Amino acid sequence: MPLFLYVLGLAVFAQGTSEFMLSGLVPGIAHDLSVPVGAAASLTSAYAVGMILGAPVMAVLSARWPRRRALAVFLTAFVVVHVVGAVTTDFAVLFATRVVAAIANAGFLAVAMTVASGVVAPARRARATAVLLSGVTLACVVGVPAGALLGGWAGWRSVFWAVAALCLPALALVLRSAPADAAGRHDVSVGREARTLRSRSVRSALLLATLVNAATFATFAYLAVVATDVARLPAGAVPGLLAAFGAGAFAGVHTAGRSADGRLGRGMLLALCALPAGWAVLALAGTHAVPLFLLTTVQGGLSFGIGSALVHRVLRVAADAPSLSGAFATVALNAGAFVGPLLAGAVTETTGDHRDAVWVSAALAATAVAVAAAAHRDTEAETAVTPSAPQ
Question: Does pLDDT of 229 surpass 70?
């Protein structure tokens, strides 16, 4: 893999840390800025909405920019708003910085996915996508726990400064190492690309990515509560459980990077079928510590491995929309991350049992299996008619 891909991965690691770090910083922010805890917690939703809305808009606006310029502009904006967030004493300003940071993050990731696919041979594109997404999984394993420790020691503002500082070497390397020929296309037709994204194969790939990520984050958002309230583990076990999930996710992304080809073949279908079964077993056996840790690791690997493979599938079936495919893959993942916890919250508030968040994951994953089976039948029918048609 080109060194430049790891530079992009470093930036994605910093951005992923920023996206998830607030889970450990909410009490400090609420106290320091004299706002309710619920208001401070809304900063996470602000980031998710910014990611969903920002990816397609930024992809369209930057479609004709040289790729080096686009990456540098988004990363610079990301650094600046974190500096502003670190020094502000106004909650409204902090809220605005989270939205802008998410938009910059979405734009960067959308462009980075397109660039990553363009600097490697077609056979290595899944691996290139995995390098980028491994930055997100490493953020879960290392960045978020480290941010929580730093925030507890030096205050929440220090974490904002740390994220900004972490982006600076990535920004310098982007300016220096981005391929000189990675320029924006001046013949981009947003209308033509949008028509490509409306095709059945692309829509099913995007829906699958959304469903799988919704299933992932429905449970991830409640892992700490499941550990303490259901399995009766001490609060000190929660970081270890989150790290186990992240370690599984990291392994899953790298395995998918070496084996995924963007096709909805038998291997992908079997992996998808294993996903709801795994969530169901976790819901049943997660009352005990050892099964909870083992199954959390396995489901982290399956979920992120399948998610990475589905991103590669989106890029493959939307090859005629190179400027927008990465953006809409980003939208699908973040829409899932936003909707999954909302559904889990609605169900658990009704039933009073936090294990039901895991059953929500099982239901969402089962829906993904049904969508994949239908898409696979459509693909086989198209191939039977036109053997050379792409899957």
Answer: yes
Do residues 112 and 132 lie in contact, with contact meaning Cβ atoms separated by under 8 Å? yes
In angstroms, the CA 290 to CA 286 distance is 8
What single-letter DSSP state applies at residue 155? -
End-to-end CA distance of the chain: give it in Å, rounded: 26
The answer, yes or no, to whether residue 275 has pLDDT greater than 50, is yes
Q: How many CB atoms are closer than 10 A to CB 122? A: 11
**Tokens (6 digits) for 277:** 């079964």
Closest by CA to 261, choosing from 189, 315, 190, 211, is: 315
Percentage of the chain surpassing pLDDT 70?
88
Which DSSP category does 178 fall into?
A: S
Apex 12 CA angle, 212 and 61, nearest 5:
90
Sign of CA dihedral 158, 159, 162, 167: negative
Q: How many CA atoms lie within 13 A of 188 on its CB side?
A: 19
Q: Which of 141, 144, 163 is nearest to 152 (CA)?
A: 144
CA-CA-CA-CA torsion sign (95, 308, 338, 280)? negative
Task: Report pTM.
Answer: 0.76
Structure tokens given for 267: 């291997």
Selection from 318, 325, 314, 327 nearest residue 55 by Cα: 327
Distance, in Å, from the CA atom of 262 to the CA atom of 312, rounded to the nearest integer, reads: 5
Can you tell me which residue has the tokens 């086989």? 380
Contact 9, 131 (CB under 8 A): yes
CB 14 within 8 A of CB 140: no
Query: What single letter denotes the amino acid at residue 180?
Result: A
85 — pLDDT class (breaks 50, 70, 90): very high
> Do residues 330 and 106 lie in contact, with contact meaning Cβ atoms separated by under 8 Å?
yes
Q: What whole-number distance in Å separates Cα of residue 216 and Cα of residue 364?
A: 9
Question: DSSP for 109-170?
Answer: HHHHHHHHHHSS-GGGHHHHHHHHHHHHHHIIIIIHHHHHHHHHHH-HHHHHHHHHHHHHHH
Distance CA 93, CA 181 (A): 38
Between helix 91-118 and helix 3-20 the angle, nearest 10°, is: 150
**Is the distance from CB of 391 to CB of 309 less than 8 angstroms?**
no
* Number of Cβ atoms within 10 Å of the Cβ of 172: 13
The length of the chain is 391
Contact 260, 356 (CB under 8 A): no
d(CA 79, CA 128): 25
